[in-house]
Amino acid sequence: MRRETRPLRGDSPGAGRSLTAYHYEGRRGGPRVYLQAGLHADEMPGVLILQHLLDLLDRAEAAGQIAGDICVVPMANPIGLAQWQNGRPQGRFDADTAKNFNRFYPELDRLVGDDLEANLTPSADENRAIIRAAFRAALDRAEGKTDGEDLRLQLLRWSCDADYVLDLHCDHHAVLHLYASTVRPDDTSRLCRSVGAKLALVQAVSGGNAFDEAHTVPWLRLAERFAGRYPIPMACFSSTLEYRGQFDVSDDLAAADARNLMTFLAAIGTLAADAAPRPAFADAPHLPLGGAAEVFAPLGGVLSWTRAPGDQVTVGEVIAHVTDPVTRDRVPVISPVGGMLFRQELWRAVLRGQGLGHVAGTEIVREGELLSD
Q1: Considering the domain 2-284 in this protein, what is its CATH number?
Q2: What are the tens digits of pLDDT across the range 239-261?
Q3: Predicted confidence band at 372 (pLDDT cuts at 50, 70, 90)?
Q4: Angle at 181 between CA 191 and CA 359, to 5 degrees
Q5: For the chain, which end, N or C, has fewer CB atoms within 10 Å of the first or last residue's CB respectively?
């Protein structure tokens, strides 16, 4: 194992930070995998999971079970980790720019598309290597204007040539679910069966260029650009894994989740087959991200749920109430679609019109920018 630390220059004197990655180098040509956690620096389940995963990878390396390269970034956002206000972490948005740390990644296809015109070949395998080399070269040339931009560039430098990219997050209150592209459904199923996800929300392009889609959308757009001239493979599978809710942080949970990630790594051939058990969970429903309907507060007051994350609900069903403590009005919250109530917001004091949670259904109810900020 090799530990690598890269500095972030700092936007003011004496304010430099750094990013650290752990590299495990396989010798058997297995897929290259990149994993990170803490990009939203107020979300700790994934950070603890990767601590347990690093212990398991150390043992696998000692046993000669690592077949492909693995890069682990256990805390992907030291900027956000330092942002607290009134005793609460504020690590989802950059305090300087108000930008979500999981948006606005460079569009790799735009950086390299023109340069590829003269270099691509009739071989998809050769083009995979050519494009990845172009990604690396473009990112090495790029310079950020702020620490937030430097952070995005450095994370992509470590991940842009991976076959699999897993970004570990969590929600407020939620079941374990994940987001993935529509282009590699077999890998989505394999990941669900390995980690025990209850739901996969799939979309080719969600908008906002989040970290996971910064690895899949470029291959889609390059394939469209060179269609009929050069074969472009869908060379990266990436996923954002939402490890339940913000308070689901314990060593027991994290250790089990780390073992399940080892199962996935073995299932795709990055670890030897005997390094972890085979996938043991059932596949989860793959539902369109545009079918995830948001539920809103009909008035301000106190929110009380009658259904829990993971429950199947029907369209028109009462799933919560909001009570106005002054007027004593108690108004039901109605599910706009049938499906799984998979997430709820953290707070129980709500404002009129505030988003309260999401129900995942089969029919498209939203288009355009699909990611909540």
Answers
A1: 3.40.630.10
A2: 999 999 999 999 999 999 999 99
A3: confident
A4: 85
A5: C
